[in-house]
Amino acid sequence: MRYLPLTPADRATMLARIGVDNIDALFCDVPADALQSGPIAGLPAHASEMAVERHMGRLAGENLSAGAAPFFLGAGAYKHHIPASVDHLIQRGEFLTAYTPYQPEIAQGTLQVLFEFQTQVARLLGTDIANASLYDGSTACWEAIAMAHRVTKRKKSILTGGLHPHYVATAQTMARFTDDVLVAQAPVLSADAEDAAIIAAIDGETSAVVVQYPDILGRIPDLAAISAAAQAHGALLIAVVTEPVALGLLEAPGALGADIVVGEGQSLGVGLQFGGPYLGLFGCREKFLRQIPGRLCGETLDAEGRRSFVLTLSTREQHIRREKATSNICTNSGLCALAFSIHMSLLGGAGLERLARVNHGKAQALSQAVAQVPGVTVLNDAYFNEFTVILPKDAREVVDALAAKDILGGVPLGRLYSEKPELANGLLLTATECTSDEDIAALVAALKEVL
Amino acid sequence: MNAPNASGWRPEMGEAGAVLPATVSGDHGLNLEEKLIFELAAPGTYGVDFDDADVAPAPALGKFLRKAAPALPGLTEPEVVRHYTRLSRQNYAIDLGPFPLGSCTMKHNPRLNEKVARMAGFADVHPLQPTQTVQGALKVITQLADWLMALTGMPAVAMTPKAGAHGELCGLLCIRAALTAHGEERPVVLVPESAHGTNPATAAFAGFRVENIPATEDGRVDVAALTARLGPDIAGVMITNPNTCGLFERDLKTISDAVHAAGGYVYCDGANFNAIVGKVRPGDLGIDAMHINLHKTFSTPHGGGGPGSGPVVLSAALAPFAPLPFATLDADGIAHLVEEGDAHDHGHPNSFGRMTAFHGQMGMFTRALTYILSHGADGLRQVSEDAVLNANYILRELEDVLDAPFAAYGPCMHEALFSDNGMAEGFSTLDLAKGLIDEGFHPMTVYFPLVVHGAMLVEPTETESKAGTDRLIASMRSLAERGRAGDVTLKSAPHYTPRRRVDETLAARKPKLVWKD
């Protein structure tokens, strides 16, 4: 077996040194009737690298990949071009095969990356500080709600209608088991973000109002107005960014008054990967420092007075604080944070702005093209790279018909809101820098056929 | 031994032999210092080219536009490649040598896994594509699920949890949901004092109160104390097996039976599954739920702190409450993704809900399945046997110089536990760990589990050769002897690293988490 270096002779020598006759003597604490011997029923034996690659390659071949088709999906996961150097660098063994940097003297590489990542994230989100990553945007969103609860000592949070339904569901799952009270607003198919309804819902018992920016339908809420309303009631504004590229063009949520900003970092460096692993971004005001979930990397000095980095404030964390920890999170998304950070370093602020303008330009072109298709209505006026169209029939059927033509034609709202038939004709369409004019033409032609 | 060079200087003379010349750059040969990216980059630069003409934003976006581009540094590709490559050299990693961190299972990460995970059919598919366009991806999930159920002897598995602690949460939420479904209020979860910190943190996060259960002299859960505490307020227990002392919990079946008789559930922390994969099916020991860290037992890379993946196998009693979504294969071989809209139709109406957006850590599933298929059932059993063999070999080789508190009670499993008893006055585990860094190894897990004074938990894993393990043993033996003798040079270790001991107190007292110009 190619991954197991011990030889039969090694094993015999080592057993003799230990003083036992056979390997099962080392499993003597296992009850005899629970110790497996002989082949395991139904499971194959080991296989060569070539055989395994062939098997997995066949499975990969059963999928229509985004790059192999006109592709218009978004809804919290976006296809962007990832520079080749990103994937090369994250595969360096020193990054790929390192552990969480508990021994700072031999982990300055990872630690400096995390410090740079935290700074990049804080600047992108417009927050004072940021952590070293959480699992993904949806779990980061729940962590933000839980943190707001600790900060405000209030239980009620408002999940606004434009919040990704998976994020809503994730928070609702957790709140079933805590004393948090979540008020989930129903999404409304309207051209403008539901700012007035959001502001009207905030009251003196509200811990936090959770607002996605841009929202699930691609609309852009007025964070400044919502922030002012939240502040007036002593509530916190949690802004959720599922498409960080948008922040190349749109004002940073922190700059508009958001107290906590969480995000899904997948767009930069990470890739689609059928939904995971992704990257939870978490930034907030400095005064919440001791309530932050997850790992934090801080600057310090070594014994010779040189600038160094180290995981810090671990007294918030589970391995020290156990049942009183601010979160149970341990392993997070370190390598995805590295990929994000490398991609962000290649872009810089100027490149991110340029990338955002390209994305927005492609979305404008897509919007104008599909608006010409009979029966298609573009819902929103303001959007970044994703918007909603209303079709004359259930968008799930349309997407299936498009898939039969090898076109991946967006995310039908019925997929996300199975219990809301009034949204079933809605379709989310996304364009990024990867979207070509030919892709748009193919979608338009196919839509004309299937509608 | 290196030959003297013309000046007479030899590497082993070190700093004591001569005053080494300072350098203008701050680098020292291949020991490279690297500035922060914020100190390297010029404003307005970037390392990406764009094909498309710049288009003005739509007027509707006007009031939302930012006033200035984000204040983020940008570099060209050669500069970026160099920055991160230079930083990488300041890391220790499995690829450089043994990484015997107890309970972390830092085994070799096969590169075939990386190649497979990057196949476009896995890496470049969107989670919300129509399921008829992602049949292969869904089959990866069902095939991996089948293996995990077979290896654990459990009838169900929840694949979406994103890491071990998230898996623990999944298991405890299943228990909460089961209790609620049965109309029961059981507010307390029992956790052995030797447990990972995530166990009590997760129980609290899931809304339970935590009570500790003591350990016995031989490093196991105190069965008498545990059973005495069982009653109508106990939701269940969280037990790690093999436990954090590296020992098999012999009485787990007895414990499970007692907990079940008292109306509770048994959560097993599967962080140490590598010791028993292919040898013992935890399902045979009566457990109700166990997470499996794919980034430990099944070799997906730890990546300097994740991503992980923590599928949870479930008993028939808890399976009805498993989270959504999940993949399933019908009789015709068509894969389905069961989400909120069709859970009822697929006979799963009582799910406790969704734990995350989308369907879990697909990138880890492809790697883990590749690893499992490579080993097969026979290879996986050899994995656990070799992991246990390597650990016991270390235990036997070092027990004369390092206190091994439980060695008298029998063999260990995949990790050997030592204490710092017997070290000279003022010398402790930390000094040995830092000394091990100078020897070119990553230290063992230190000061955990808490039940042993100055604990050192050594987990070599099965991917260490005998020669590699012998080198680790020789270094640890030397360090133990130096610690017993009170060798003061240990107190200042490490000496040969990019940084010396860092001031953790300063970092916490004056937190500086972002760079400011």
Write the layout of secondary structure elements.
The complex is a heterodimer of chains A (451) and B (517).
Chain A: H1 8-18, H2 49-61, H3 84-90, H4 93-96, H5 108-125, E1 129-130, H6 137-152, E2 156-159, H7 165-175, E3 181-184, H8 195-201, E4 206-212, H9 223-232, E5 236-241, E6 260-264, E7 280-284, E8 297-301, E9 307-311, H10 318-321, H11 334-371, E10 377-378, E11 386-390, H12 395-404, E12 411-412, H13 413-416, E13 426-430, H14 437-450
Parallel strand pairs in A: 2-3, 2-4, 4-5, 5-6
Antiparallel strand pairs in A: 1-7, 6-7, 8-9, 10-11, 11-13, 12-13
Helix pairs in contact in A: 3-11, 5-11, 6-7, 11-14
Chain B: H1 14-17, H2 37-40, H3 77-88, H4 111-117, H5 120-123, H6 135-152, E1 156-158, H7 164-181, E2 188-192, H8 198-205, E3 209-213, H9 223-229, E4 234-240, H10 252-261, E5 265-269, E6 289-291, E7 312-314, E8 326-329, E9 335-338, H11 362-398, E10 416-418, H12 429-438, E11 445-446, E12 456-458, H13 466-485, H14 504-509
Parallel strand pairs in B: 2-3, 2-4, 4-5, 5-6
Antiparallel strand pairs in B: 1-7, 6-7, 8-9, 10-12, 11-12
If you average the pLDDT of chain B, what whole number results?
Answer: 94
Largest sheet of chain B: 7 strands, mixed
Task: Tell me which protein chains meet in the greatest interface and how many residues each side has.
Answer: A-B, 206 and 203 residues
In quaternary terms, these chains amount to: heterodimer
The rounded distance between the terminal residues' Cα atoms of chain A is 56 Å
The first-level CATH class name of the largest domain in chain A:
Alpha Beta
CATH architecture of the domain at 114-369 in chain B: 3-Layer(aba) Sandwich
Strand content of chain B: 5-15%
What is the helix content of chain B? 25-40%
